[in-house]
Every structure is written in C-alpha cells, then in structure tokens.
Amino acid sequence: xxxxxxxxxxxxxxxxxxxxxxxxxxxxxxxxxxxxxxxxxxxxxxxxxxxxxxxxxxxxxxxxxxxxxxxxxxxxxxxxxxxxxxxxxxxxxxxxxxxxxxxxxxxxxxxx
Amino acid sequence: xxxxxxxxxxxxxxxxxxxxxxxxxxxxxxxxxxxxxxxxxxxxxxxxxxxxxxxxxxxxxxxxxxxxxxxxxxxxxxxxxxxxxxxxxxxxxxxxxxxxxxxxxxxxxxxxxxxxx
Lengths: 112, 117
Prior knowledge:
The structure holds two protein chains of two kinds. Chain A has no helices and eleven strands. By secondary structure, chain A is an all-beta fold. In chain A, the strands form two sheets. In chain A, strands 2, 4, 5, 9, 10 and 11 form a six-stranded mixed sheet that branches. In chain A, strand 9 (85-92) and strand 10 (100-102) form a beta hairpin. Chain A is globular and about 40 Å long. Chain B is built from no helices and eleven strands. In chain B, strands 2, 4, 5, 6, 9, 10 and 11 form a seven-stranded mixed sheet that branches. Chain B has a four-stranded antiparallel sheet with strand order 1-3-8-7, with no helix packed on it. At the A-B interface, strand 4, strand 5 and strand 10 of A face strand 5, strand 9 and strand 10 of B.
C-alpha cells in the first residue's frame, strides 16, 4: 500500500501563494491527486498528475512532482478566502487499482 | 464533472438500530465504488471496495457483518451500519469511478454524518 504524508496546517495571507507539500512511499504510484474538502462536505478533485509528468498547471493551481524524492506539491496562486479548506493528497497504484491512499490532510487558513 | 449523490447527508439513530446510506452515480455507470470513513480532523480511511454484482472487498480490521455493502446496480451502492453503537458515529463518504476510465478521477459523494445516540 501507499503511505502518504503531508503537513497538517498552513496559514497564508490573502493574495499570497500557498504551497502544500506531500510525500509518498510507493514509487509505482501511477496517478497522484489533490482534493479539497470544505467543512461538512465531500471531497472535490482539484487536479491530478500522471507519474510521468513533472508539472501540471491549471489556472491558479500548479502541481509539481519530484519522482526521485517522491515529493508532490500544490501551489495555489493569489490565495483567496474561499481557498480555506482541508487539502488532501492521494495516490493510486496502477490503472487497474482504483484504491486511493490519502494523506492526513493540510488545513489551509487564509487570513485577510 | 460527473456527480455522485449520497443520501442521507445527516442521520441520527438510536443505539442498536441499523442505518442505510446510499451512494448513487447520477450521470455515469460505476462498476466500482468505495466507502470511506473519516474521523474528525483525520484523513479518509478506506473501509471497503464495492463491486457491482459481486461481494465487497473489505479492508483489514473492518467488520463485514457490521458494515454491509450491496452494489446491486451500476449506479447504486449501499452501506448499512448494523446494530449501530456510539463508536460508529463518524462521517462516511463514498466515491465512484466511471467504467472504462482507469486512472482518472474518482468522484466523491457529499458524505453522511452519522450520529448514534
């Protein structure tokens, strides 16, 4: 299985960039994901990256993947108050293994 | 994106009763759905993988007789918490992947907050 670790808390000022980091153990992880969870709600997929990519950008979101170090990061540019939430990174192993292993989640607090 | 609907969103039940939670894929077919449990301020713990037309696969430590899963159609999976106790109180979330779409996103339901009193 996959062990996924991430820092628990991040406080950022509105308008600044947020960077959330994640490390994983299973080098065979094929896809790596970032999910957002607002209070009392389910998970919303923000973005995902295939393991043969180094970077993926989608509007304010930039995902960086360092396979050698098994490190994944999510950068949110121009962080807004609506970005306050818990962010989970997750990995899945292989195209036929739909199981996702989640990190503990990073609580991002955006302050004015 | 695809929609997964979970019902109910909140339920309070008495200790010893059973509660059924439904997970529906509204605009796609899902041969596989997943049931997670989330404790306050913690990550999601995979409980079981629900396979359409066959038995669910439970993760280690999850009692299959306690958490009954039925995946009778390509758009519906149910989780029944039997003889619920206060320690079963938690947030339960399901997810589903579209058929024939390996490795792409899993869509999540909005979750069910179960409180056993």
